[in-house]
Amino acid sequence: MKTSSIFSRKPSLIESVIFIALLVLSGIMISPFLWMLSIGLERTANLQPPFPPTFFPKQPSFFNFELVMENATLFYSYLNSGFVAVCAVCLSVSSSLLAGYAFSKGQFRGKKILFMIVLGTMMIPMETRLIPLFTMFNKFGLINTYVPLIAPAILYGFGILLSKQYFDQLPDSLREAAQIDGSSEKRTFFQIYLPLTGPITATLAILSFLDSWNAFLWPLVVINDHALRTIPLFLASFSFENGTRLGGLTMALATASILPIVVVFLFLQKYIIRSIALSGLKGE
């Protein structure tokens, strides 16, 4: 009865205005992607990109996408990006959950100071860390390897913040009951708290995957070997060499490069809202 009354209620004027405004904003946000897809589907875009820009190709064809998919370099770039992203996700999610649990439930000296230092890392731009990081990895002979692309993910300040806020919402009574039963801290985390972290784990995985897959500046600095190029590096190289001369292929390649992100987000997007609702980031 209550459910039917909820669905039968007419939206107020303010709700309608908000809905229309959000619909317009979403259309503006998605329009570049629709234009990119339209250019990729335009068969003659390699000869002359359509002008003025249009969202409806005059001669729709999958010709550009077929050429892109036949490119072996793109396949290897996909493998490189996929390997780096999966490793970075595993590393960042694991370290964020462990650190978040320690900062939330742990009792040790200097906890607040260490947490402030972790938050401080979020305020340091990547550009200011390029030279020190490059010098460190170069000293160990790790340039042109996967290590510098994966290792920095171990310190994910925003992920640690989200994890701590999430663990703060979980009752301390679970830990106290486990301690009374003689459970170790390790067992308490892995067998009691970790199974409850599904939403925040999915959120961290999405955010970490996006960061790793879209990373451009850092891989550009540490990767010179074409065999190790990730998707953003391959796309930038292809676009720089061809420019607008092969606009259709460039846009088809750009569309193909974001497909994994779209797939991951569509499958896990519901966990983002759920984890934020439970993480206490509402300004309490």
Automatic annotation (TrEMBL):
One Pfam family cited in the UniProt record for this chain: BPD_transp_1
Chief site of localization: membrane
Domain called ABC transmembrane type-1: residue spans: 78-268
Topology with respect to the bilayer: Multi-pass membrane protein
Residues annotated as transmembrane: 12-37, 75-101, 113-134, 146-167, 188-210, 246-268
InterPro entries per record: MetI-like, MetI-like_sf
Keywords attached to this entry: Cell membrane, Membrane, Transmembrane, Transmembrane helix, Transport
Domain of life: Bacteria
PROSITE patterns, per database record: ABC_TM1
Subcellular location: Cell membrane
Family per record: Belongs to the binding-protein-dependent transport system permease family.
Record's protein name: Carbohydrate ABC transporter permease
Organism name: Paenibacillus baimaensis
